Queue: 4 jobs
Job 1
Amino acid sequence: MYNRRITTRDLAVLLNVHERYLSYMYPGKIAVSNKKALIEARKLFKLAIAKEVIDGKYSTAQAARVAYVSYNTMRRFVKKAKNGL
């Protein structure tokens, strides 16, 4: 949940509990106040992983798992990294 592998809603369905109950049991997950900074940080993280794909450290599929994104999203970021953004 904290690593963005599963949403609170999906976890609540999986555990057969109400979403509010799950939020009550795990209160550490708070709303992000500055979403633009979070989006920029995630973008930089994905670009750094994409550069490691270019360097040969990861395959595109491995990088997608490391960055918690889809394969196609990672392909787009690898393409951006190759073009110098």
Job 2
Amino acid sequence: MSKRKSKRPSAGFNPIAKAVSGAAPLNKGDDGYTQALKIRAHAAALAFANGTGTQSDAHILAAAFNVTALLVAEHGHGQEHRGLLPPWRDAVTNLYQRSDGRGGIGEMAAVSAGLELHDALLDTVTLSEMTAVLGRLKAFMLAGLLMEVPRD
């Protein structure tokens, strides 16, 4: 009868480091990823302000809205700014449905206020919260409740 070998944990897994990294802010050590997300969303808003917005830009604004709305609704971030979400949603919907590439003053004000909230939440959200939000968004997309954002 051969001796039974014991299973050893792999040397690459450190449960304490994994727990700490999940509780760390998203923008800590991300090599500018959150900054790139912010820039991309603001560039899309600027395209509509300049009259050159496309449906792809509207998709980017919709993705920023979806992430922000889930962070507020399910994770309790920014509850005091909850009133910004309906006008932002309506503005993004109008920008998407209208194909002229221009945003009105009211729409751009709602989008600008929403993006400020989005930027503030990206600075405070943790990696584990963002992972949960992205998982929920993927489930919504698979269920057909959200459109997938096209990649440029």
Job 3
Amino acid sequence: MTSETTLRAAVQQQRQLIATLRAALSAPALLQLLGFAAGQLDIVEHCLSADEMARDRSPSGLAWWLDQTANLLHAAALQTKYVEDIVAKFGPDVRSV
């Protein structure tokens, strides 16, 4: 089972990576992709909010919730990795994706 603490740390790491990439990019398409990833992280943070974590769940229900939240985080990380790979291959000022 993925822990809440692990997920929160990973969200922070992804947010820092997105901020670094945004600062280096000029390509609107790549900035838009990073916006999608950041939006996904917003959903993850909502899933980890105090209200959501305080819901009455069984241990298996909580495990499921955290696993699904981890899946959402993974999708955001993949989006960010895609942008990283494009930048590594073509540079930060790429105009076509």
Job 4
Amino acid sequence: MKSGKCIATATAVYNLDADSKRMKKYWPWIIFLTLLFPILELLIFFVRFGAPEGDLYQQSLTFLPIGLLGSLVLFYFYDKAETRIHKNMIIAGFVLAVPFALLGALGGGLLGTWAVILYGLIPLVVGVLLGNWLGGLMARRRA
């Protein structure tokens, strides 16, 4: 490692420049997924209730951290996966968890902002972890 800062941990040495270069290709997707959750919340509201009332647009910004944190978890595990089937299973776990995350976030709205974030994020993390686990099993069986 000739250039860049390095961080040594108990298990590995990470080249920060290499990690940041790899993550640069995911930023457009991270931004898209971050904006997707408030847009989905607004679509659900419009379909259910019609015209917006009050400060609905401002309240929908509560869904931004769900998309941001969920997409960061998604691409962290996606980047660590080595085979195509493993990566596909991680994405499938995330996609299958999105409806449950929206339900959790909408239901968590009754308990406050932190509940919206927490109840929306838990299904996404569980979906990615299950996809990672299942993808790892499938990748090992094929090898």
